[in-house]
Design brief:
CATH class of one domain: Mainly Beta
Strand content: over 45%
Strand order of the largest sheet: 1-3-4-13-7-10
Structural class: mainly beta
Radius of gyration: 15 Å
Bound molecules: zinc ion
Helix content: under 10%
Distance between the termini: 29 Å
Number of strands: 15
Number of helices: 1
Length: 150
Amino acid sequence: MAIKTKIEGNYAQVDALPWQPFPESFSAGGILWKLLNVSPEMGAWTAIFECPAGSSFARHIHIGPGEYLLTKGKMDVRGGNMEGGFTATALGYGYEACNARHDQTSFPEESSFYMTFLGPLQFIDEAANTLAVVGWEQAQDLWAQQTGQS
Ligand code: ZN
């Protein structure tokens, strides 16, 4: 067995971080994000998202659970209250279970939320074929690329 190194703590001055576009293969309507932390210990990654009115995330499955705090606006999960899903309203907290499938997550008004993903997000097509798996490593690679650290 290889000796592991200790994981260091981390602090992010959120307002000093530059907003980056969340990739269009995973979202529509101009969603921006800031990656705040990745935790290889937990397989977790934490980010905040700024979502313009009418924006949405592409179809995905939460391979691990996730926790969010909606700090502004409204988030329609699985189509929202009007379509048999659920609508979160700021200030709202939510826990998404392992294997939660979200075919439609959209923002009817300008919204923002903070979320810790305890495991990867699997983006899928309508037939549930995998399009991409975004875990802490992929999130970190994307952020490094966008902010010129790679
Ligand atoms: Zn989701």
